[in-house]
Design goal:
338 residues, alpha/beta, Rossmann fold, 2 domains, 8-stranded mixed β-sheet, 12 strands, globular
Length: 338
């Protein structure tokens, strides 16, 4: 069994605004083991990015705050970790790359200056040694002319090259966990494939755990071992990538997969889930997906469904899975008695 690197338990991250308390992340639990790539997928407003920022302790306070829950990283609860300790963990043990590299890189400094700074923050080495390390990192992520690139500015590079620089910066201390928040959204399809190949190679070569935040099921299918589906601040389904894509159980997941275009079909009308993601509220009643769900019945609007365990490491938040839950329990009892 691989060692667990990240274990989030019942995380609640709320924002306190003039319009009231907003539970952006409402009881999320997920985990990532070493050498594993876990994808978190869902529409905008589902709580994916707030979950990742909570792990990094980068939620702006005010107005945001982790209200309750645990974020266990290698046995330490990051929720209880001081800011001074978190500064040592960020970059050194947990690294993060963002959707738009141009907003993450400082346009006033060269690529080399920014990489060298990241390296020297966590490693005791001189400028010359750090520069050589920066060149090696750029070469490692497939950037040509690395010796020249270190002296260039962000605006002189393409979007794909800037994202490779961000990955090189994230890799500078060989972190145990890499969080990638929509790392390919701003890139064209060809560059996107190259970035995903690069991440998979780093995951394989360094046995690094990766938490990939995305809304793109194509990216999930390409690179992830497991998938966590989020909706309106909650986890609604979890399983292996194959299970989720081949046999989705939760109606929202079914809708996401149904909305994927079929390349073999001609003159098809693309399916879209009706309605929009509801604005999170503290006192929400019933299943959050019920107003958009074609399978919804009276109970769905009156009660909130729990996460049902419907197999090994497989969960789904839907009353339709209650029967499957009983069948799994019955099967487990039979195995134990046998």
């Amino acid at each position: 069994m691989s060692k667990r690197v990240l274990d989030i338990n019942e995380l609640h991250t709320h924002f306190f605004t003039d319009k009231g308390e907003i539970p952006a992340v409402d009881g999320v639990s997920l985990n990532v083991s070493e050498g594993e790539i876990v994808g978190v997928v869902g529409e905008s407003g589902s709580g994916k990015s707030v979950t990742s920022l909570s792990v990094m302790q980068l939620i702006p306070n005010p107005p945001g705050k982790i209200v309750s829950g645990e974020i266990m990283f290698k046995g330490r609860d990051l929720v209880q970790t001081s800011l001074k300790q978190m500064k040592k963990i960020r970059g050194n043990e947990i690294a993060m790359i963002f959707q738009e590299p141009m907003t993450s890189l400082n346009p006033l400094f060269t690529i080399g200056n920014q990489l060298i700074e990241a390296i020297r923050i966590h490693n005791k080495m001189g400028k010359g040694e750090a520069r050589q390390k920066a060149v090696e990192l750029l070469e490692q992520v497939g950037i040509p002319r690395a010796n020249d690139i270190v002296d260039e500015y962000p605006h002189q590079l393409s979007g794909g090259m800037r994202q490779r620089v961000m990955i090189a910066m994230a890799m500078s201390c060989r972190p145990d966990l890499l969080i990638a928040d929509e790392p390919t959204t701003a890139l064209d399809v060809t560059i996107q494939a190259q970035i995903l190949d690069l991440m998979r190679q780093l995951n394989r070569d360094l046995n690094m755990a990766i938490l990939l935040i995305t809304h793109d099921l194509g990216v999930i299918a390409e690179i992830c071992d497991r998938v966590v589906v989020m909706y309106a601040g909650q986890v609604v389904e979890e399983g292996t990538t194959r299970e989720i894509l081949k046999d989705p159980q939760q109606p929202y997941t079914k809708g996401l997969i149904r909305s994927l275009p079929d390349m073999k079909a001609k003159n098809q009308k693309l399916y879209s889930i009706p309605g929009t993601v509801p604005k999170p509220k503290v006192d929400m009643v019933g299943c959050r997906f019920a107003p958009r769900c074609e399978y919804a019945f009276d109970r769905c609007f009156a009660e909130s469904p729990p996460l049902y365990h419907i197999g090994d490491n497989r969960t789904s938040r839907c009353f339709l899975n209650e029967r499957d839950q009983r069948e799994v329990a019955s099967h487990d009892e039979t195995v134990i008695k046998g």
